[in-house]
Amino acid sequence: MNEKEVLEEDEEDEKSNEELDSYTSKIRDEISKLEDELKVLIKQKEEIISSEEYTQLLKLRDNRKEIELKIQKLKDRIYFDFSIFRRPFKKYKRNVEQYEKIIEDYETDTLNALLTDSELKIVGVLREMSKSIEGGELHLKDKNNQKVMKQISMMNHQYFEDFLEEYNPIIKNKERIEGKINENNADEKINKIDYKKLIR
Questions:
Q1: How many CA atoms lie within 13 Å of 176's alpha carbon, on the beta-carbon side?
Q2: Cβ neighbourhood burial of 57 (10 Å; 0-12, 13-18, 19+)
Q3: Counting Cβ atoms within 10 Å, is residue 155 exposed (0-12), middle (13-18) or buried (19+)?
Q4: Phi, psi (5° rounding) for residue 85?
Q5: Are 133 and 148 in contact (CB under 8 A)?
Q6: Which residue of 82, 110, 139, 160 lies most exposed, with the fewest beta carbons within 10 A?
Q7: 77 CB contacts (<8 Å, ≥6 apart)?
Q8: For residue range 178-189, what is the model confidence (pLDDT) as tens digits?
Q9: What residue ranges do the domains of the chain occupy?
Q10: Are 191 and 54 in contact (CB under 8 A)?
Q11: pLDDT of 146-155, one tens digit each?
Q12: Is the pTM of this model over 0.85?
């Protein structure tokens, strides 16, 4: 290799090193820029999390959980109270066509049937079923007979009105809270920040 070739090679190496340094510098600048953007996003997220809006959202969610527990307890209670009628209803509806639809509704979905039974026709059905048991037209096992009669006597018009007076306001309160949760933008803001962090 002659001197000229060595000089050209040195110049090429120097040029390559300059390009590499320039590229490395650009990468460092880009990384620094991304780190700065990430710090800004983290700060924004922390500000949202410490905001009154986010605190309110957490309280609303806690309230919703409490309400859902109350609703579940009420559902469990009504389903339990009707569970004793499973066999008597099957036997009774064979004998009384006029109550068949009501009985089937309560067998299928007790709570929904009650919520749509604005006239509380179930009270009359239970009263008539009680008469059929007492009159010997509807035969149940003696032990079961007493339990069914006791349950029917408890489940009068007042029982259902009390249940609905307790259940309906809770549902309205849940809907109100759901509306407030949907109006609260804190979660949406956090999700946008998290998304921006992902695509960086």
A1: 8
A2: buried
A3: buried
A4: -90, 0
A5: yes
A6: 139
A7: 163
A8: 999 988 877 777
A9: 64-186
A10: no
A11: 899 999 999 9
A12: no
